[in-house]
Amino acid sequence: MDEKGNDYTKEFIYGAKRVKNLSKKYKIEKAILKSGSPSCGVRLIYNGRFNGQKKEGSGVLAATLKRNGLEVEEID
To answer: Which of 29, 37, 62, 71 has the most CB atoms around it within 10 Å of its CB?
Structure first.
């Protein structure tokens, strides 16, 4: 959700599925993702309160790729 309450869950899931399918098509084994992102965070993601604080967890893309056997790494 953004600060105005708009829910982008469907878009995040759609994007994650597209990347997963492309990774399979091109036989990609590892993804390097941006830390903290609600999509790409591997270990920590922003808490959703728009206060700059993070919580434990994986973003939608990171979780999807991990579940499908890809190695994921994050950078700042």
So the answer is: 62
Predicted TM-score of the model (pTM): 0.85
Q: Which residue, among 29, 28, 27, 33, has the nearest Cα to 45 in the 3D structure?
A: 33
- Overall residue count recorded for the chain in this entry: 76
DSSP string for residues in 10-70 = HHHHHHHHHHHHHHHHTT--EEEEETB-TTT-SSEEE-SSSSS-EEE---HHHHHHHHTT-
Q: Which helix (H) or strand (E) holds 6?
A: none
